[in-house]
Design brief:
Its EC number is 2.4.2.7. The protein is of the alpha/beta class. The chain has a domain at 52-175: Rossmann fold, CATH 3.40.50.2020. Helix content is 33%, strand content 31%. It is globular and about 40 Å long.
């Protein structure tokens, strides 16, 4: 298994994407590298196991990559948190604020068992809005959600602090400055 420094080295920085001044942290090289991906998943799984997770939830789309893999590594279930209109049965949903406008997350409520300890897993924590909405949605479904795990944290955007204020333990494998 690669150490965190070696996993971090697989994250590509793309300057000025999607707009000037932004340093985009691209996980494509990480997920394309079998040993890097396996190591990132195992590091996240270790933290989820330590937090007592019964299931993993991940947000569409990159949270599906890491969340489902962590669930498989732990031998537990995965709850996909979807964008609107993607689930063919009655859903439970939550609207949340974006910088400009709103968005929505939905789940199949039968995928969550009341009292189930669910850890949220995603690739990156920026402002925290989507992760907070995901935690609220899981809690509405009856889950106990107190842990959020990320591959990357952008601490300058203070998303992890927002999640901590919402009652979540937050861990990331690595941090990058900027936004």
């Amino acid at each position: 298994m690669l150490d965190i420094a070696a996993v971090r080295a697989l994250v590509r920085t793309v300057p000025d994407f999607p707009e000037p001044g932004v340093m985009f942290r691209d996980i494509t090289p990480l997920v394309a590298d079998a040993q890097g991906l396996r190591s990132a998943v195992r590091h996240l799984a270790h933290r989820a196991r330590a937090g007592g997770a019964d299931a993993i939830a991940g947000m569409e789309a990159r949270g599906f990559i890491f969340g489902a893999a962590v669930a498989v590594e732990l031998g537990i279930g995965f709850v996909p948190i979807r964008k609107p209109g993607k689930i063919p049965v009655a859903t439970l949903g939550i609207d949340y604020a974006l910088e400009y406008g709103t968005d929505r997350l939905e789940i199949d409520p039968t995928a969550v068992t009341p009292g189930q300890r669910i850890a949220i897993v995603d690739d990156l924590i920026a402002t925290g809005g989507t992760a907070i909405a995901a935690a609220q949605l899981m809690r509405r479904a009856g889950a106990a959600v107190d842990q959020a795990l990320f591959v990357i944290d952008l601490p300058d955007l203070q998303g992890a602090e927002r999640l901590r204020s919402a009652g979540l333990t937050v861990e990331a494998l690595m941090e990058f400055p900027g936004h």
